[in-house]
Structures are given as structure tokens and as C-alpha cells.
UniProtKB/TrEMBL annotation:
Protein name in UniProt: DUF1801 domain-containing protein
Organism: Sphingobacterium litopenaei
Domain YdhG-like, residue spans: 26-129
Superkingdom of the source species: Bacteria
InterPro entries: YdhG-like (IPR014922)
Length: 142
């Protein structure tokens, strides 16, 4: 059985954000923390060395792979901010058409800056993810 090697750490979220070279990404990261903490009601924590996560759930796939992951998260990477809040539902696909300027990865949304996207739609995407994960997986409350 394969287990996820990335876990929540005790690293300081604000200290991590201070290491980001781009001032706009720093400001956007602080805004994302506000939005995600409000959406989920849980504080930001570092998940591995570079992902800021919110909440936690346990997943187990048919393949046997299982682990714990943040319910919502993001990472201010050099090329773009990676948003980890996409569940692939039809509802979310509808929201994506209204989101604004972004690129899509397999399971994440890449944005250059928050001003490129509609924050109301982002909040709807977050709420949809929280709902999806709460119904499909076991949420871990701390």
C-alpha cells in the first residue's frame, strides 16, 4: 500500500511567505489565507515545504493508495500560484468558465495573480470543494 509522504509540518506560514521573492505573490498569498480560512474556518498550516493547507481529510483510492491532504490549499510558486481546490465536478467546471485568466493542471488551477480572476467565483469553487470532500471523504477535525 502506498502512503503519501507529504504531511503537515510545524513550519511557520508567514515565515514561508516572506521567502517568496515576488511582492505581488506575497500580497496575494496573504489574501488567499484570509479567503481560505474564512471559507473553511481553519487556520493555515504548512503542508510539506511549499504548500499552505487548510483543514485535513483522509482519502483512500481503489488502487489502495491512501493518505491525508488539505481540504483547500495553495502554493506561491515561481511561475504561478497553484490553487489546490478543484474536485472535477460538473458544478466546478461551470465555475471555471467564469473564473477569469488561469491555466489548468490535472488537479490544480494556476493563476499569475489574484487580480486575474473573479474572487467571488473562487469562493464558490472553494465552497464546492469543501462540500465535495466532506461528502466523499473522512474529514479530520483537530
Amino acid at each position: 500500500m502506498s502512503v503519501n509522504k507529504t504531511h503537515y509540518t510545524e513550519a511557520n506560514v508567514l515565515a514561508f511567505i516572506e521567502t517568496v521573492d515576488n511582492l505581488q505573490k506575497k500580497e496575494d498569498s496573504l489574501r488567499l489565507i484570509e479567503l481560505m480560512e474564512t471559507a473553511l474556518g481553519e487556520k493555515a498550516k504548512m503542508f510539506g515545504p511549499s504548500i499552505i493547507g487548510f483543514g485535513k481529510y483522509h482519502y483512500k483510492y481503489d488502487s489502495g493508495h491512501e493518505g491525508e491532504a488539505p481540504i483547500l490549499g495553495f502554493s506561491p510558486r515561481k511561475a504561478a500560484i497553484s490553487l489546490y481546490l478543484y474536485s472535477g465536478s460538473a458544478e466546478q467546471d461551470g465555475f471555471l468558465t467564469q473564473l477569469g485568466k488561469f491555466k489548468m493542471g490535472k488537479a490544480c488551477i494556476y493563476v499569475k495573480k489574484l487580480s486575474d480572476i473573479n474572487l467571488e467565483i473562487l469562493q464558490k469553487l472553494m465552497a464546492s470543494s469543501i462540500d465535495f470532500i466532506s461528502k466523499k471523504y473522512q474529514r479530520i477535525l483537530e
